[in-house]
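Re: that backbone. Tokens:
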């Protein structure tokens, strides 16, 4: 199929996950990837994407996106301050101007929008209660998209993503540095998805995402954070991290890390079946067996 006759997809925020998505879709689609760095052009072309120079913080630089593609995959995080996601607003203003209308938009959000539930289970119908500024910006982005999409005839799929891991995204350095974890009685549940699985699910959403639908894109595991660190340490033949009570650990870690460690929830993934894409790694333990450094 000629690249000119292929359906067009625009990826916003083409980092590690975006590159994996581009690799998977480039055979069947013409992929455009927004980047603010010319230095990344060669990398993006190597995975079959056409790089587009622009910066979500500079609306005047985004004019090339107008009318470019009927499907948009929005992976870009909000800016680092404030309660509103200005980047998403800048993007939507440009997309609304195109003569070729956007028909589908996949937004990759975060399970952080649920906030702390003291270890209780949450689902897609659980009301959001963001506690950190970054989570509040994500909720703002979701709400902005939910208002914009129906008004423009766009099928919106929101994928809420937990902690992403891969061989190059494991807490090995943290474990080697002997950063403590919480004692089990005070530890928080963490939720995960493997990078390649996430990329496959994003690709699946371009075909199977239902209109105005939220999907928790996680493996459904119920592992406490300290146990996760222990699993990684065992796989790499490292000493497990020490454990401390919350009152002692809070004094040793950054406020951002502490906010992650204190939010505890078990995220269910029953809607994941809608994407018709079984996980290759339904648990961290299964993935770690494939890369274990421990003889």
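Recovered sequence:
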């Amino acid at each position: 199929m000629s690249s000119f006759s292929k359906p067009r997809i625009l990826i916003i925020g083409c980092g590690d996950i975006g590159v994996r998505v581009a690799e998977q879709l480039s055979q069947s689609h013409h992929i455009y990837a927004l980047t603010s760095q010319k230095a990344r052009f060669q990398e993006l072309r190597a995975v079959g994407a056409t790089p587009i120079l622009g910066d979500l913080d500079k609306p005047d630089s985004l004019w090339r996106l107008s009318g470019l593609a009927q499907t948009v995959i929005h992976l870009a995080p909000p800016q680092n301050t404030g309660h509103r996601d200005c980047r998403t607003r800048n993007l939507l203003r440009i997309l609304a101007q195109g003569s070729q209308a956007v028909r589908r938009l996949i937004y990759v959000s975060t399970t952080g929008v649920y906030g702390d539930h003291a270890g209780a289970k949450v689902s897609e119908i659980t009301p959001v209660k963001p506690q950190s500024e970054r989570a509040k910006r994500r909720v703002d982005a979701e709400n902005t998209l939910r208002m914009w999409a129906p008004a423009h005839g766009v099928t919106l799929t929101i994928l809420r993503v937990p902690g992403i891991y891969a061989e190059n995204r494991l807490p090995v350095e943290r474990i080697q540095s002997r950063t403590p974890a919480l004692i089990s009685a005070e530890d928080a549940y963490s939720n995960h998805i493997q990078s390649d699985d996430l990329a496959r699910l994003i690709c699946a959403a371009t075909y199977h995402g239902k209109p105005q639908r939220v999907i928790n894109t996680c493996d459904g595991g119920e592992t406490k954070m300290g146990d996760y660190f222990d699993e990684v340490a065992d796989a790499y033949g490292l000493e497990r991290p020490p454990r401390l009570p919350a009152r002692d650990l809070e004094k040793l870690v950054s406020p951002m890390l502490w906010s992650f460690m204190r939010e505890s929830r078990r995220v269910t993934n029953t809607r994941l079946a809608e994407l018709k894409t079984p996980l290759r790694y339904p648990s961290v333990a299964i993935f770690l067996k494939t890369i274990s450094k421990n003889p």
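The radius of gyration is 20 Å. Residues 46 and 105 are 24 Å apart (CA to CA).
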